[in-house]
Design a protein that fits this description.
The chain is α+β, with helices and mostly antiparallel strands. It contains ten helices and 20 strands. Helix 5 packs parallel to helix 6 (172-188).
Length: 371
């Protein structure tokens, strides 16, 4: 059995859990190992049903694992007395005011309520809730109720915060505002935190580290830059927003750059020291692809535009999909490729379904995974 750490604030060792559905066993968590350091926020992301919420329930003491141990500061724990748990639903008591709801934690902990109220009113001011202290939950917007719930959670002063998609039901603007408030609050309340989300950008924005879960396992954990920029597998790459995933074989190698023969198309230059013959998966994020207008009579390939990119291909435009402030453009380059473009670029290139365009990306922009 894996030894536990005496330096991690929270450590999970070989946590497994299964349920029964219609008389058949249903495994949910499979030997989860996770260490979270003091004051760290780890964002757990993954598709629905991968076990994220079940993991939080076990840490909170709401259910017991089938096997494995939870350690807090190196000592095993069996209950959730060290945890404050906030869910997507605010769970405010409708008969208590906003201020009274926020003071539940200090009240239960038998703290000096006069001092706690002064501290809470200050947080109401900082969270944009000044003037709503006496309002009841039904009189508050969804975003306001979540702010009250977040203040209540922070004021609990528990060692571990578990935030289970706390902003998942809110509109994009309110979520963005709450992200800022949470980041500010963590400077004052640097509690060790596990944050469950389906939103990749939320994890990228809030997490000190990100853990990607799938089918009850943690596939990868690291800094947001590591997980989003260097996924360890096709499953991780797909979940963290890599739109172009290609399979191929290394054809040649020269001073840190390799040529990869794509199974369904031409060769691609990549930054890699893998030897010839290695089967690889290539990951290209859409923001790394640049489109340019092809020469009027180009039919057998394209000259490179004025850039350091080693890859340039003629492409035919497929779907064009609005994607927030940009457009997602699906291309056929002899292999499928996806690019993000701004509206000015879309108009300048006269992009439409079926039109021809050039696509370029750097060899260093291609993340290579050896199969």
């Amino acid at each position: 059995m894996r030894e536990h750490s005496v330096t991690a604030h929270l450590q999970l060792v070989q946590i497994s859990k299964g349920f029964t559905r219609d008389g058949a066993p249903l495994p949910v968590l499979d030997k989860i190992d996770l260490e979270v350091q003091h004051g760290e926020l780890v964002a757990l992301i993954g598709p629905s049903g991968c076990g994220k919420t079940t993991l939080l329930h076990i840490i909170a003491g709401l259910i017991s694992p089938d096997s494995g141990t939870i350690y807090l500061n190196g000592a095993p724990v069996t209950d959730g007395g060290h945890v404050a748990y906030m869910q997507q639903k605010d769970l405010l008591l409708p008969w208590r005011s906003a201020l009274s709801n926020a003071l539940l934690g200090p009240e239960i902990a038998r703290e000096d309520l006069k001092e706690a109220e002064a501290r809470t009113r200050q947080l109401f001011e900082e969270f944009g809730l000044a003037g709503f202290e006496s309002a009841y939950p039904a009189q508050l917007s969804a975003g306001m109720r979540q702010r009250v719930a977040l203040i209540r959670t922070l004021l609990s002063r528990r060692e571990i915060l578990l935030l289970d998609e706390p902003f998942g039901a809110l509109d994009a603007l309110t979520r963005s505002e709450l992200h800022e408030w949470l980041l500010q609050a963590r400077e004052r309340f640097p509690q060790t935190t596990l944050f469950v989300t389906h939103d990749r950008l939320e994890a990228l924005r809030l997490g000190d580290r990100v853990a990607v879960m799938r089918r009850g396992e943690i596939l990868q954990i690291g800094t947001p830059e590591e997980v989003f920029g260097q996924p360890v597998s096709e499953a991780v790459a797909s979940f963290v927003g890599v739109e172009t995933i290609l399979r191929g074989v290394v054809e040649s190698q020269d001073e840190g750059f390799a040529t990869v023969q794509i199974h369904t198309g031409p060769q691609v230059a990549v930054a890699s020291t893998l030897p010839p013959g290695t089967k690889v998966i290539l990951c290209i994020r859409p923001e790394e692809v640049t489109l340019f207008a092809p020469p009027a009579k180009a039919t057998h390939g394209l000259p490179l535009p004025a850039s350091s990119a080693r890859n340039a291909f003629p492409a035919r435009v497929g779907k064009i999909v609005p994607w927030g402030v940009v457009f997602k453009v699906h291309l056929d380059c002899g292999f499928p490729l996806v690019a993000f473009v701004t509206r000015p670029s879309l108009e300048a290139l006269s992009l439409r379904e079926g039109s021809l365009v050039g696509a370029t990306f750097k060899a260093t922009a291609v993340h290579v995974i050896a199969e």
